[in-house]
From TrEMBL:
Belongs to the Gfo/Idh/MocA family. The lineage of its organism: Eukaryota, Fungi, Dikarya, Ascomycota, Pezizomycotina. Residues 73-198 form the GFO/IDH/MocA-like oxidoreductase domain. InterPro entries: Gfo/Idh/MocA-like_OxRdtase_N, GFO_IDH_MocA-like_dom, NAD(P)-bd_dom_sf. This is Gfo/Idh/MocA-like oxidoreductase N-terminal domain-containing protein. Keywords: Oxidoreductase. One of its GO terms (biological process) is NADPH regeneration. GO terms for cellular component: cytoplasm. Residues 1-62 form the Gfo/Idh/MocA-like oxidoreductase N-terminal domain.
């Protein structure tokens, strides 16, 4: 495929274990690359991708983090950047998948890197975005448990994980990820500042419709990650394409 005449860029959305080698091969073939997160489950391998990209500075090489392209998250960042909540001090963020009663997550864990790498990587990226890419980690604590998905222990994985990252400069990030949400997908973030707080998707809903029934009032919510961030993926692809075609900075 990389030898196809006229090919200028590739999107890599294969299994996690293939991201790094395929990205490096594409870079070496002088192609622009948009690679789905994560680059790898290994720090050294991830660094090798970054090194390969630096050797070809004329190429656009991007690891896709979809929430940076979601309009609600962008609005929240702009509000914070404008100083409307003061200095951000605490970030609380979660990535929670709808529960599945089959063996999907057990099989997926064998190549995904586990819930911390697969799910919380989104929240970790948000912490770096909102706190600043130059944020330096001071300490990390993480715990997890298997509540509803036996078999995950074979891959050293869990179906509920909590992580706390302390940064130098007085900032703390709290992450929660789960594979057992019953209503559907619930990904939310709070950024707490010295003069206010920003919340993104704290009360999830597909739209503004409420169903008033004898048992109460309910709203439909996204069932999968793609349902929630479909437009973010579209925007991510479009902006990457614009950067390639118009030689814009990523």
């Amino acid at each position: 495929m990389l030898k196809h005449p006229g090919l200028e860029a590739v999107v890599i959305a294969t299994s996690t274990t293939e991201h790094a080698p395929q990205t490096i091969r594409a870079i070496e073939a002088d192609k622009h690359v948009l690679c789905e997160k994560p680059l790898s489950i290994n720090v050294e391998i991830s660094q090798s991708v970054a090194d390969a990209a630096r050797r070809k500075p004329h190429l656009k090489v991007m690891c896709g983090f979809s929430r940076r392209f979601d309009q609600s998250y962008r609005n929240a960042y702009e509000q914070m950047d404008a100083g409307n909540i003061g200095k951000p001090s605490i970030l609380r963020s979660q990535t929670c998948d709808k529960f599945r009663g089959d063996a999907y997550f057990v099989e997926y864990a064998k190549k995904s890197g586990g819930i911390f790498v697969d799910c919380q990587i989104h929240d970790i990226d948000l912490a770096l975005w909102f706190f600043g890419q130059d944020s330096v980690v001071k300490s990390v604590t993480a715990v997890g448990t298997i509540s509803r998905t036996p078999g995950l222990e074979e891959s050293n994985d869990v179906d509920n994980g909590v992580g706390i990252v302390e940064f130098y400069g007085g900032k703390v990030a709290y992450f929660y990820s789960s594979r057992m949400m019953m209503p559907g997908q619930h990904d939310m973030t709070e950024i707490i500042g010295t003069h206010g707080k920003l919340s993104v998707n704290a009360n999830p809903a597909n739209d503004l419709v409420e169903m008033h029934e004898p048992s109460g009032i309910r709203r439909e919510i996204a069932q999968t990650y793609y349902d929630r961030f479909e437009q973010a993926f579209v925007k991510e692809s479009n902006e990457f394409t614009e950067c390639v075609l118009d030689d814009k900075k990523l």
